[in-house]
Amino acid sequence: MSGLAALVWTTSVWGLALQPPSMPVALTLAPIAQLEETTELSLDAEALRAEQHDATMREWTRTMSAVTVAVFAVAGTLGALQFHDEYGFHDDYADTACARGDALLDHCGEQTPWAHLIAVGATAGLGLTTFVLSTQVDYDIASRHDEDWRIYEVTRWVGLGMFVVQAIGGFLIANAERFGWADPQDDFDTMQGLAIAHLGLGAATFGLEVFNTLILF
């Protein structure tokens, strides 16, 4: 009798039955569900941190922009007074306040206009800080709160470019006599024209910065 036949005969005699072991196999999706829940919580926490960081950057950008405009106003006023002293809208250098000896700021010729220079330096520092802060803003998140941030995303670059041109022009005009590039009397019309352009660009830049600040509030 073969081994298999003997096994079948034995089980039938003794009332035994051949069947696979009845071990329950419990399949559960709990670990997968827990993993998905953990992932969702992680993404939610990350999104919350991004939202909080962006809110902080927006607040700092908004505040620094307002401070920059305030200091810019002082710098612009001092620049206008400097223009009045050295050039004004006169036809000849002899008619200017500097030539007559009654300049308001008394920073004529080769003298350094310290008041205007300090105010411009402060404006540049604050403006650069504001711009750097603005680079940390997530404009996709910001625009969900206020669409004007999309406008600011573009106009801040325009303002930066205008300020750079303004600073270079101011440096060249202020040092024209000191470096021998121009004579205040012989080249008065040219220097006056450059000064008027500098003043006009300054006013336009200031106007844009005011606009940029207003749309952030």
Could you describe the 3D structure shown?
The protein is 71% helix and 0% strand. It contains seven helices and no strands. Helix 4 packs antiparallel against helix 6 and helix 6 (148-174) packs antiparallel against helix 7 (188-214). The radius of gyration is 38 Å and the shape is elongated. 23% of the residues are buried.
Q: In summary, what is this structure?
A:
By secondary structure, the chain is an all-alpha fold.
SSE map:
Blueprint: H1 3-13, H2 30-86, H3 97-100, H4 114-134, H5 139-145, H6 148-174, H7 188-214
Helix pairs in contact: 2-4, 2-7, 4-6, 5-6, 6-7
Comma- or semicolon-separated keywords:
single chain, 217 residues, mainly alpha, 7 helices
Rg from Cα: 38 Å
Mean pLDDT, to the nearest integer, reads 85
**How large a portion of the residues is in β-strands, by DSSP E?**
under 5%
Largest sheet: none
Low confidence ranges: 7-11, 13-18
Number of helices: 7
Structural class: mainly alpha
What would the principal axes of the Cα set say about the shape? elongated
User: What is the first-to-last residue Cα distance?
Assistant: 98 Å
What order do the helices and strands follow? HHHHHHH
Helix content: over 70%
User: Can you count the beta strands?
Assistant: 0
